[in-house]
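Ops channel
N.P.: pipeline sanity check, posting one input/output pair.
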Protein backbone atom coordinates (compact mmCIF):
# COMPACT_ATOMS: atom_id res chain seq x y z
CA UNK A 1 0.00 0.00 0.00
CA UNK A 2 1.30 3.47 -0.88
CA UNK A 3 2.05 5.60 2.17
CA UNK A 4 0.30 8.91 2.76
CA UNK A 5 1.77 12.09 1.31
CA UNK A 6 3.36 14.31 3.96
CA UNK A 7 2.85 18.06 4.03
CA UNK A 8 3.54 21.15 6.10
CA UNK A 9 1.68 24.45 6.43
CA UNK A 10 2.99 28.00 6.63
CA UNK A 11 0.33 30.11 8.35
CA UNK A 12 -2.34 29.39 10.94
CA UNK A 13 -5.41 31.35 9.87
CA UNK A 14 -8.90 30.38 8.75
CA UNK A 15 -7.82 28.93 5.41
CA UNK A 16 -4.88 27.02 6.89
CA UNK A 17 -7.25 25.48 9.42
CA UNK A 18 -9.50 24.41 6.54
CA UNK A 19 -6.64 22.51 4.86
CA UNK A 20 -5.50 20.87 8.08
CA UNK A 21 -9.00 19.78 9.11
CA UNK A 22 -9.71 18.16 5.73
CA UNK A 23 -6.35 16.42 5.64
CA UNK A 24 -7.13 15.01 9.09
CA UNK A 25 -10.15 13.24 7.57
CA UNK A 26 -7.85 11.49 5.05
CA UNK A 27 -5.12 9.89 7.18
CA UNK A 28 -4.45 7.20 4.58
CA UNK A 29 -3.68 9.88 1.96
CA UNK A 30 -2.30 12.92 3.80
CA UNK A 31 -0.23 13.46 6.95
CA UNK A 32 0.52 16.86 8.45
CA UNK A 33 4.12 16.79 9.75
CA UNK A 34 4.74 20.39 10.76
CA UNK A 35 3.87 24.06 10.54
CA UNK A 36 5.56 27.44 10.48
CA UNK A 37 4.26 30.69 11.95
CA UNK A 38 5.69 34.18 12.01
CA UNK A 39 5.13 35.11 15.67
CA UNK A 40 6.80 33.24 18.51
CA UNK A 41 3.71 33.57 20.73
CA UNK A 42 1.79 31.43 18.22
CA UNK A 43 4.20 28.48 18.28
CA UNK A 44 2.84 26.75 21.37
CA UNK A 45 -0.82 27.43 20.55
CA UNK A 46 -0.59 26.12 16.97
CA UNK A 47 1.46 23.11 18.05
CA UNK A 48 -1.13 22.20 20.65
CA UNK A 49 -4.01 22.70 18.22
CA UNK A 50 -2.52 20.68 15.35
CA UNK A 51 -0.31 18.33 17.41
CA UNK A 52 2.77 18.84 15.21
CA UNK A 53 6.13 20.59 15.57
CA UNK A 54 5.92 24.32 14.81
CA UNK A 55 8.78 26.48 13.55
CA UNK A 56 9.35 30.21 13.10
CA UNK A 57 10.53 30.06 9.49
CA UNK A 58 9.49 28.10 6.39
CA UNK A 59 13.12 27.07 5.94
CA UNK A 60 13.22 25.42 9.38
CA UNK A 61 10.00 23.55 8.63
CA UNK A 62 11.46 22.14 5.40
CA UNK A 63 14.87 21.37 6.89
CA UNK A 64 13.53 19.47 9.90
CA UNK A 65 10.50 17.68 8.43
CA UNK A 66 11.25 17.28 4.68
CA UNK A 67 7.54 17.10 3.70
CA UNK A 68 6.44 16.04 0.22
CA UNK A 69 4.93 19.52 -0.17
CA UNK A 70 4.22 22.66 1.85
CA UNK A 71 1.08 24.80 1.77
CA UNK A 72 1.70 28.55 1.85
CA UNK A 73 -1.44 29.92 3.50
CA UNK A 74 -0.55 33.51 4.31
CA UNK A 75 -1.88 36.96 3.26
CA UNK A 76 -1.43 38.19 -0.32
CA UNK A 77 1.27 40.64 0.70
CA UNK A 78 3.48 37.91 2.18
CA UNK A 79 2.72 34.96 -0.07
CA UNK A 80 5.28 35.49 -2.84
CA UNK A 81 8.08 35.85 -0.30
CA UNK A 82 7.05 32.65 1.49
CA UNK A 83 6.71 30.69 -1.76
CA UNK A 84 10.15 31.85 -2.88
CA UNK A 85 11.70 30.86 0.46
CA UNK A 86 10.10 27.42 0.29
CA UNK A 87 11.28 26.76 -3.27
CA UNK A 88 14.80 27.93 -2.41
CA UNK A 89 14.71 25.51 0.53
CA UNK A 90 13.98 22.67 -1.91
CA UNK A 91 10.26 22.22 -1.22
CA UNK A 92 7.38 21.64 -3.57
CA UNK A 93 4.67 24.17 -2.82
CA UNK A 94 0.90 24.55 -2.88
CA UNK A 95 0.38 28.33 -2.81
CA UNK A 96 -2.74 30.06 -1.60
CA UNK A 97 -4.56 32.24 -4.15
CA UNK A 98 -3.50 34.54 -5.64
CA UNK A 99 0.24 33.74 -5.73
CA UNK A 100 1.11 37.47 -5.69
CA UNK A 101 -1.01 40.60 -5.20
CA UNK A 102 -0.30 42.48 -8.44
CA UNK A 103 1.09 42.05 -11.96
CA UNK A 104 4.62 43.10 -11.05
CA UNK A 105 4.52 40.72 -8.09
CA UNK A 106 3.46 37.86 -10.38
CA UNK A 107 6.36 38.61 -12.72
CA UNK A 108 8.88 38.80 -9.87
CA UNK A 109 7.62 35.54 -8.39
CA UNK A 110 7.88 33.79 -11.75
CA UNK A 111 11.40 35.12 -12.22
CA UNK A 112 12.39 33.77 -8.79
CA UNK A 113 10.76 30.33 -8.86
CA UNK A 114 9.55 29.46 -12.38
CA UNK A 115 6.80 26.90 -12.62
CA UNK A 116 8.33 23.51 -11.89
CA UNK A 117 7.87 23.35 -8.11
CA UNK A 118 4.72 25.39 -7.47
CA UNK A 119 1.01 24.60 -7.71
CA UNK A 120 -1.76 26.96 -6.61
CA UNK A 121 -4.80 26.23 -4.45
CA UNK A 122 -7.58 26.90 -6.98
CA UNK A 123 -10.43 24.47 -6.36
CA UNK A 124 -13.56 25.76 -8.12
CA UNK A 125 -13.48 23.44 -11.14
CA UNK A 126 -13.08 20.51 -8.71
CA UNK A 127 -16.46 21.18 -7.12
CA UNK A 128 -18.86 18.35 -8.08
CA UNK A 129 -21.23 20.37 -10.28
CA UNK A 130 -18.47 22.18 -12.16
CA UNK A 131 -16.43 18.99 -12.51
CA UNK A 132 -19.46 17.25 -14.08
CA UNK A 133 -20.02 20.15 -16.49
CA UNK A 134 -16.37 20.06 -17.48
CA UNK A 135 -16.65 16.35 -18.30
CA UNK A 136 -19.54 17.08 -20.67
CA UNK A 137 -17.59 19.88 -22.34
CA UNK A 138 -14.50 17.68 -22.76
CA UNK A 139 -16.64 14.88 -24.23
CA UNK A 140 -17.90 17.27 -26.88
CA UNK A 141 -21.53 17.04 -25.77
CA UNK A 142 -22.14 20.69 -26.77
CA UNK A 143 -19.50 20.75 -29.51
CA UNK A 144 -16.67 23.26 -29.39
CA UNK A 145 -16.98 25.52 -26.33
CA UNK A 146 -17.18 29.14 -27.45
CA UNK A 147 -18.43 31.18 -24.50
CA UNK A 148 -18.65 30.84 -20.71
CA UNK A 149 -20.63 33.11 -18.39
CA UNK A 150 -19.99 32.94 -14.64
CA UNK A 151 -21.96 34.70 -11.92
CA UNK A 152 -20.83 32.97 -8.76
CA UNK A 153 -17.43 33.89 -7.41
CA UNK A 154 -14.93 36.68 -7.91
CA UNK A 155 -11.71 37.66 -9.66
CA UNK A 156 -9.17 34.87 -10.38
CA UNK A 157 -11.59 32.14 -9.25
CA UNK A 158 -14.16 33.11 -11.86
CA UNK A 159 -11.48 33.59 -14.52
CA UNK A 160 -10.08 30.12 -13.80
CA UNK A 161 -13.55 28.67 -14.40
CA UNK A 162 -14.00 30.59 -17.65
CA UNK A 163 -10.58 29.67 -19.04
CA UNK A 164 -10.74 26.08 -17.80
CA UNK A 165 -14.14 25.38 -19.35
CA UNK A 166 -13.20 27.07 -22.62
CA UNK A 167 -9.89 25.23 -22.75
CA UNK A 168 -8.09 28.38 -23.90
CA UNK A 169 -4.34 28.62 -23.42
CA UNK A 170 -2.12 31.39 -22.18
CA UNK A 171 -1.89 34.59 -24.16
CA UNK A 172 -3.14 38.17 -24.51
CA UNK A 173 -6.79 38.88 -23.61
CA UNK A 174 -8.95 41.98 -24.17
CA UNK A 175 -11.02 42.94 -21.13
CA UNK A 176 -13.91 45.43 -20.98
CA UNK A 177 -15.44 45.97 -17.54
CA UNK A 178 -18.04 48.18 -15.88
CA UNK A 179 -19.18 48.51 -12.26
CA UNK A 180 -22.68 49.43 -11.09
CA UNK A 181 -24.07 50.10 -7.62
CA UNK A 182 -27.57 49.32 -6.37
CA UNK A 183 -29.27 48.70 -3.01
CA UNK A 184 -29.19 45.13 -1.73
CA UNK A 185 -29.92 43.50 1.62
CA UNK A 186 -26.92 41.51 2.86
CA UNK A 187 -28.36 38.98 5.34
CA UNK A 188 -25.38 36.56 5.46
CA UNK A 189 -21.60 36.74 5.59
CA UNK A 190 -18.80 34.31 6.47
CA UNK A 191 -19.78 34.47 10.16
CA UNK A 192 -23.47 33.67 9.50
CA UNK A 193 -26.67 35.71 9.73
CA UNK A 194 -26.11 39.45 10.12
CA UNK A 195 -29.53 40.27 11.59
CA UNK A 196 -29.67 43.34 9.33
CA UNK A 197 -32.30 43.62 6.57
CA UNK A 198 -31.42 47.21 5.61
CA UNK A 199 -30.52 47.58 1.93
CA UNK A 200 -27.09 49.10 1.36
CA UNK A 201 -25.19 49.90 -1.82
CA UNK A 202 -23.61 46.80 -3.36
CA UNK A 203 -21.29 46.86 -6.36
CA UNK A 204 -21.81 44.58 -9.35
CA UNK A 205 -18.89 44.17 -11.75
CA UNK A 206 -19.61 42.94 -15.27
CA UNK A 207 -16.78 42.24 -17.69
CA UNK A 208 -16.33 40.66 -21.09
CA UNK A 209 -13.16 38.68 -21.79
CA UNK A 210 -12.16 38.32 -25.43
CA UNK A 211 -9.75 35.43 -25.93
CA UNK A 212 -9.86 35.69 -29.74
CA UNK A 213 -12.27 33.03 -31.00
CA UNK A 214 -13.79 32.44 -27.55
CA UNK A 215 -15.25 34.73 -24.90
CA UNK A 216 -16.16 34.97 -21.26
CA UNK A 217 -18.64 37.02 -19.25
CA UNK A 218 -17.76 37.84 -15.64
CA UNK A 219 -20.63 38.96 -13.37
CA UNK A 220 -20.06 39.38 -9.63
CA UNK A 221 -21.91 41.25 -6.89
CA UNK A 222 -20.27 42.10 -3.56
CA UNK A 223 -20.45 39.16 -1.13
CA UNK A 224 -22.13 36.94 -3.70
CA UNK A 225 -20.34 33.95 -2.15
CA UNK A 226 -22.47 34.24 1.01
CA UNK A 227 -25.45 36.39 0.07
CA UNK A 228 -28.14 33.89 -0.92
CA UNK A 229 -30.31 36.67 -2.33
CA UNK A 230 -28.14 36.40 -5.43
CA UNK A 231 -28.28 33.04 -7.24
CA UNK A 232 -25.16 31.47 -8.70
CA UNK A 233 -25.35 30.99 -12.47
CA UNK A 234 -23.14 29.38 -15.05
CA UNK A 235 -23.69 29.16 -18.79
CA UNK A 236 -21.38 27.25 -21.14
CA UNK A 237 -22.15 27.75 -24.82
CA UNK A 238 -20.82 25.52 -27.60
CA UNK A 239 -21.15 25.02 -31.31
CA UNK A 240 -23.83 22.29 -30.87
CA UNK A 241 -25.68 23.43 -27.74
CA UNK A 242 -25.21 24.83 -24.26
CA UNK A 243 -25.16 23.96 -20.56
CA UNK A 244 -27.15 26.33 -18.35
CA UNK A 245 -26.59 25.39 -14.71
CA UNK A 246 -27.83 21.76 -14.68
CA UNK A 247 -29.76 21.86 -17.98
CA UNK A 248 -28.17 20.70 -21.24
CA UNK A 249 -29.66 21.48 -24.63
CA UNK A 250 -27.93 20.10 -27.73
CA UNK A 251 -28.21 18.86 -31.28
CA UNK A 252 -28.14 15.13 -30.57
CA UNK A 253 -28.85 13.85 -34.10
CA UNK A 254 -30.22 15.06 -37.42
CA UNK A 255 -33.30 17.22 -36.85
CA UNK A 256 -33.17 16.26 -33.15
CA UNK A 257 -32.64 18.83 -30.38
CA UNK A 258 -32.76 17.32 -26.89
CA UNK A 259 -32.94 18.77 -23.42
CA UNK A 260 -31.38 16.75 -20.58
CA UNK A 261 -30.32 17.36 -17.01
CA UNK A 262 -27.33 16.81 -14.79
CA UNK A 263 -28.83 14.90 -11.86
CA UNK A 264 -27.21 14.68 -8.45
CA UNK A 265 -27.67 11.52 -6.39
CA UNK A 266 -27.93 12.86 -2.85
CA UNK A 267 -28.04 10.23 -0.12
CA UNK A 268 -30.00 10.73 3.08
CA UNK A 269 -33.38 11.88 1.76
CA UNK A 270 -36.64 10.26 2.84
CA UNK A 271 -35.98 6.59 3.74
CA UNK A 272 -32.43 6.46 2.40
CA UNK A 273 -30.39 5.58 5.48
CA UNK A 274 -26.92 5.64 3.91
CA UNK A 275 -25.97 8.98 5.46
CA UNK A 276 -26.32 12.50 4.11
CA UNK A 277 -23.78 12.65 1.28
CA UNK A 278 -23.32 13.43 -2.39
CA UNK A 279 -22.97 10.09 -4.20
CA UNK A 280 -22.59 10.99 -7.87
CA UNK A 281 -23.84 13.18 -10.73
CA UNK A 282 -25.35 11.55 -13.80
CA UNK A 283 -26.25 12.63 -17.33
CA UNK A 284 -28.60 10.71 -19.62
CA UNK A 285 -28.27 7.54 -17.56
CA UNK A 286 -24.48 7.56 -17.18
CA UNK A 287 -22.40 8.75 -14.22
CA UNK A 288 -20.17 11.71 -15.11
CA UNK A 289 -18.89 12.46 -11.59
CA UNK A 290 -18.37 10.31 -8.50
CA UNK A 291 -17.64 11.70 -5.05
CA UNK A 292 -14.10 10.47 -4.26
CA UNK A 293 -14.72 10.93 -0.53
CA UNK A 294 -18.03 9.13 -0.15
CA UNK A 295 -18.80 8.52 3.51
CA UNK A 296 -17.15 11.67 4.87
CA UNK A 297 -20.29 13.77 4.29
CA UNK A 298 -18.39 16.76 2.93
CA UNK A 299 -19.97 19.85 1.42
CA UNK A 300 -19.00 20.72 -2.17
CA UNK A 301 -16.27 23.19 -1.19
CA UNK A 302 -14.71 20.57 1.08
CA UNK A 303 -14.84 17.92 -1.64
CA UNK A 304 -13.07 20.30 -4.01
CA UNK A 305 -10.33 21.25 -1.54
CA UNK A 306 -9.78 17.63 -0.49
CA UNK A 307 -9.51 16.72 -4.18
CA UNK A 308 -6.93 19.46 -4.65
CA UNK A 309 -4.91 18.35 -1.63
CA UNK A 310 -4.76 14.70 -2.69
CA UNK A 311 -3.90 15.68 -6.28
CA UNK A 312 -1.10 17.91 -4.99
CA UNK A 313 0.25 15.05 -2.91
CA UNK A 314 0.32 12.78 -5.96
CA UNK A 315 2.03 15.49 -8.03
CA UNK A 316 4.62 16.15 -5.32
CA UNK A 317 5.55 12.46 -5.33
CA UNK A 318 5.60 12.38 -9.14
CA UNK A 319 2.60 10.03 -9.14
CA UNK A 320 0.13 12.37 -10.85
CA UNK A 321 -0.26 15.46 -13.06
CA UNK A 322 -0.09 19.09 -11.99
CA UNK A 323 -3.46 20.07 -10.46
CA UNK A 324 -3.21 23.83 -11.17
CA UNK A 325 0.23 25.11 -12.24
CA UNK A 326 1.66 28.47 -11.28
CA UNK A 327 1.56 29.63 -14.91
CA UNK A 328 -2.22 29.13 -15.03
CA UNK A 329 -2.67 30.92 -11.71
CA UNK A 330 -0.54 33.87 -12.84
CA UNK A 331 -2.56 34.18 -16.03
CA UNK A 332 -5.93 34.01 -14.26
CA UNK A 333 -4.94 36.66 -11.72
CA UNK A 334 -3.44 38.87 -14.45
CA UNK A 335 -6.81 38.82 -16.26
CA UNK A 336 -8.65 39.51 -12.98
CA UNK A 337 -6.38 42.51 -12.40
CA UNK A 338 -7.21 43.69 -15.93
CA UNK A 339 -10.90 43.64 -14.97
CA UNK A 340 -10.20 46.03 -12.10
CA UNK A 341 -7.99 48.19 -14.32
CA UNK A 342 -10.71 48.41 -16.96
CA UNK A 343 -13.25 49.50 -14.34
CA UNK A 344 -10.95 52.25 -13.07
CA UNK A 345 -9.92 53.49 -16.52
CA UNK A 346 -13.43 53.08 -18.02
CA UNK A 347 -11.86 51.63 -21.16
CA UNK A 348 -10.83 48.25 -22.55
CA UNK A 349 -7.54 46.76 -21.35
CA UNK A 350 -5.45 44.24 -23.25
CA UNK A 351 -3.05 42.01 -21.37
CA UNK A 352 0.38 41.45 -22.90
CA UNK A 353 2.79 38.59 -23.41
CA UNK A 354 4.17 37.41 -20.07
CA UNK A 355 7.18 35.28 -19.06
CA UNK A 356 4.96 32.36 -18.00
CA UNK A 357 3.51 32.12 -21.55
CA UNK A 358 6.58 30.37 -22.95
CA UNK A 359 6.42 26.55 -22.60
CA UNK A 360 10.21 26.44 -22.14
CA UNK A 361 10.00 28.79 -19.14
CA UNK A 362 7.70 26.50 -17.14
CA UNK A 363 10.29 23.84 -16.35
Amino acid sequence: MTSASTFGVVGSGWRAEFFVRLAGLLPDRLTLVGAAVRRSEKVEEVGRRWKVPVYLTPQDLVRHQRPDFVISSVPWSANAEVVTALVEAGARVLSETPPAPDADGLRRLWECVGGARVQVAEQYLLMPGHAARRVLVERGVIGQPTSVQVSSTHMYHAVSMIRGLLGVGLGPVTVSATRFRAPLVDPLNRDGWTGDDTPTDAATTIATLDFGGASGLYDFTDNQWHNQLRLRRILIRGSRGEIADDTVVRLAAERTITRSALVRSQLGYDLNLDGYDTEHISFEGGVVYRNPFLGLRLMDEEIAIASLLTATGAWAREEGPEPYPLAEACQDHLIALAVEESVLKTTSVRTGTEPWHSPESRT
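N.P.: looks fine end to end. Residues 139 and 253 are 16 Å apart (CA to CA).
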